[in-house]
């Protein structure tokens, strides 16, 4: 129900992963119920069927590869909207049952992609340990807790959940990597503009021609709206229908973004609005003052046009 | 005074030229007073000072070369707007005091540019006649009427005014050439949209860079507004300020044109609105149904945006 | 060594996955050695270090999520190039140790994403079976072969490898889904143009502004080069350096593509060439005749320019 | 004959006008023969028929209105090229038979447009004098020399030619106005690049759509070529064929300009090359160092492409 804050949250599980860690950064979720889902489709289905009020799912990063799944789910089926984004650092720790030395580690349980992202660290610090692949970061911690392996690559929340000791933190090879999550809900009025928002769209164009994509970009460029992300996807239909996932700066309530959306609506085969929500500032740096300037520019030009239409030229 | 039909007309004289002929095609002018001016600046000055209600001046064609003067006058000084355009064929006749044979013509009085535009015809039909240059097409007719020369190149209205006999008509080398005139008035509400209108603008950009001009054109292109004319002028200020005279399809009261104008206002150093007025259809062919379609598109996209902003996604 | 056909192939393992199936469609690989790698980075590292001649890795699809990893690896580290693409249908089968009825299936081993992609089928055909997640499609087949579970979701080659019986084929919910793989090698002369090629690039722009991306697209648009894929990635560096992965139609040996690449080189912070290679036609439909036309156009315009420069205007 | 310097010059007459004054700034013309023509078509026809080697005609300014005629002549008929531009200030003087006081002037002979350009000065300095219109600036001087009028508005060279005394100089209302002339010859190799050149083109597009014009501008923009002038002209053919006269920075021998021309050739209905020639620097300010930079950029990108095509990636 629009206006009622969500209390029942679902997230891409299992427990003890980045998704849970990200969900806990949202105050309402910290107080509400938090249910893990086995997959992104399952999480979003729970929201569509009103079994949950909101789902936290990853939208951008290589961790787990759910990005494609999430976008695909948002672009198809009954509409859902992003109401909030959470960006958290990709932070891996090496954890064991107790404070042992690294040279005593013989086996390391890890999700294959976590192992891949820490491979330089592993090579440098536990070169003789065998990496044993498991199904998730949480499963790695659990397997160590159960005594199956000497150490686990896991996320901080996952190590703590099963009482492991962190032997080394920040062991990912790319220290600045992040994962971006979206809190997804059923359609309703977007959260109010904050002055530093993101608007997400799925845009369908009829041809794979660069000219069609150029026309899409021009709709943004002429309104001074920046794109912060663009991804093309084949739609699965064989003959040349493409979908582009676009994130742009600004809120649908702003004149410049609203005008750009109307432009897309006119030239594209289809446009799906996926939400306007506050930018997660910690990651992207401080908000610029450009938005206020843009709003003033739009107000000025609207007033000027009104004078022209009324025959009141200065 | 806005809303009061003009009764006092001024036009680029002298009497008996294309300008007078064009003015007579306007019913209100046929009934009102019609005063010739010696120059375009003089005609427009009379409107600015309220000595006349409207001025008819040429805006496009080589005849007389006043184009540059007219644009310059509209772009500078206190604002004026075009309320109507008149397009008439450039039609020259060879006229004499009576119905004589072409082989008896020894001298032809002509304005230099009229002579230039009929030179192939003259070479073919009166190869032995001497062309004597005079100050205007009207002066040519008058000089023949006064017995100074055997024949005149003049416009039909000019021949009739002094009682000359037309020996040959449509003698211009380019049979489809036209002159475009503008009826210029003090600012007021534009005439209502007709579904096939033209909007004229003077647009100043700060740099001579193609990128700046490209940005201007994109403002039109993304709204589906066609440009039917573009001309750059150095502004006279030495360091790189350019003015572009643009005619586009559509009326300032239409959403697509209004939005494009607002866009120009935001990106250009200055924009001067020079009028929205009905296209002279005789010359350009029938109105397209594209305008109605464009309006419907704009209404649809505005309704769609309103639903998004209200959280009412289908 | 350039010119010497590759004989030692590595692919994203384990054995019995789509990657192996895709590799077997390449005749040279069917005859050469085929080694599975545990991750995309490991596979590409083997090529970089010359332990393998070529690596087959997924570049586009949600299966397994390696897409991001692959792009990241190609964009960084010492250069590698794609020499061939392989597109195969995402085809899942349900397999068991023998020809049992579906109603006898109590547990289904599956990689989480395979389960997600077949969930409608599972719900419709084995609604009471428990899905047990395993680490890969191959592991699912192996676990069934070992008697741990009743049935497995796996790929045809994986079922056959361990002697399972296929109970149902084409069980994926999206019957037209495909995975696109790239055969990656150390730099060398690209394969010759075929008239229907793809060129892959990683393009870095200095700002996240839509204007910069628009400029990139214009480089393609003015040469009539179509983009068939575009994806933006944050580079990991915090302050606004973006990388775009672009696939365009055409071969670097063609004039239009070469000119577009030179244009990108001039305006972008960096451009990495990732290969020109034949399009996998089975998926994309027949080659168009546009390429030949484009080549003729370029030859014509070059000849025309040469005449102008020589002062030989027609 | 290409390579042979022109010795027989023709110019828009009569003698004693701006055109003659402009022609005299060209050393070869100062030594060669100089013949006045009665019109721009006549001047250009003399070059086409090889009766003259080169013609000096106005291409940009309101003085005399010949602009349209010149462009029309260059765009049609057998090809001609501009080999040099001359820019001179629009400088009017008031001249009489002797050093009389302004208050004794009762009649002023003037070409109508010269009178228009000096009207503020006339109003301020000889408010009671009658302006008598004559056919040219030269005719004004001659009429005063013959005793028909008290004073003439004319150009300095025209006053001197008939021995008049200059009573006041720089009397034009716009002190910075200039006229731009072109020296036109039969096609031949263009003069060598100087590092600060202009290239003139006539470009035909099939539709009046802004999209077509946008495509033309993109051809320049992507190569970093600035447009310094653009003018659209209806072609006279009724149904929507437009010609654009474009001046861009740079020389056809430069890579960036050559590439842009080839691009226009591919997308336009027709392109006519009208010359590459040194910019008249006095008017436009010093040459920028951008050209050298552009050349280096093009050389760098060409070398880079060659390495890619050869498989020699760094």
TrEMBL record, chains A, B, C, D:
Pfam families the record matches: ACT, PDT
InterPro entries: ACT-like_dom_sf, ACT_dom, Chor_mutase/pphenate_deHydtase, Preph_deHydtase
Keyword Signal: no
CDD domains given in the database record: ACT_CM-PDT (cd04905), PBP2_Aa-PDT_like (cd13632)
Entry's Gene Ontology cellular component terms: cytoplasm
Residue(s) at site: Essential for prephenate dehydratase activity: 179
Pathway terms, separated by semicolons: Amino-acid biosynthesis; L-phenylalanine biosynthesis; phenylpyruvate from prephenate: step 1/1
Residue ranges constituting the ACT domain according to the UniProt record: 201-276
Domain Prephenate dehydratase per the UniProt entry, residue ranges: 8-186
Gene Ontology molecular function terms on file: prephenate dehydratase activity
Enzyme class: lyase
Single GO BP term: L-phenylalanine biosynthetic process
Keywords from the UniProt entry: Amino-acid biosynthesis, Aromatic amino acid biosynthesis, Lyase, Phenylalanine biosynthesis
E.C. number(s) listed in UniProt: 4.2.1.51
NCBIfam families: PRK11898.1 (NF008865)
PANTHER family registered for this protein in UniProt: PREPHENATE DEHYDRATASE P PROTEIN, PREPHENATE DEHYDRATASE-RELATED
Protein name (database record): Prephenate dehydratase
Protein species of origin: Rugosimonospora africana
